[in-house]
Amino acid sequence: MRKAIIFTAPSGSGKTTLVKHLLDHIPSLAFSISATTRKPRNQEVNGKDYYFLSFSDFQSKIERDEFIEWEEVYNGSFYGTLKEEIDRIWALGKDVIFDVEVHGALNLKKYFEDDALAVFVKVPDLSTLQERLQKRDTETVDTLEKRLQKAKYEMTFEKRLDVTVLNDDLQKAKDMSLQIVKDFLA
């Protein structure tokens, strides 16, 4: 069995930036593309950033047990990991890296057990997180408040994951992530 690397954090913590850094520096890794029912943002591409599915397609895949894990992350927005996506990556002879929300990370860790490393990316505080989310310019006042409330909740799960990377200095967080993942894969 190949290895699984799971990065999780509240939205805006920098997990996607860290995952991209790891993909650039560890050729044996391949990104697991999640499925979602939400609409694409800005330059997101179907089949590259996410598999954008209709609600009915997503529900059909749930009924056919095609997901390793899935979750309604925000009201009406479902996200999940397709079994065929992991099969695709492993057929390439690569280890899989995930960028998922906290419940998805816990479910993936349970599924892959000791063959997975679950990394929680932590921000110094909620005001830093709020600043990062506002800089994205993708949030309304309402969605920003929902994300911050969810972040408070997600932060309570930090100790249930294998390791924490503090992202208060991006270069340090990149270096630490790279070392942790290389050590695990070795």
Automatic annotation (TrEMBL):
Show the PROSITE patterns listed in the entry. GUANYLATE_KINASE_1, GUANYLATE_KINASE_2
Query: What is a single molecular function from GO for this protein?
Result: GMP kinase activity
Question: Can you say where in the cell this protein is located?
Answer: Cytoplasm
- Where mainly located? cytoplasm
Highest taxon of the lineage: Bacteria
Carries keyword Transferase? yes
Q: Which UniProt keywords apply?
A: ATP-binding, Cytoplasm, Kinase, Nucleotide-binding, Transferase
Q: What is this protein called?
A: Guanylate kinase
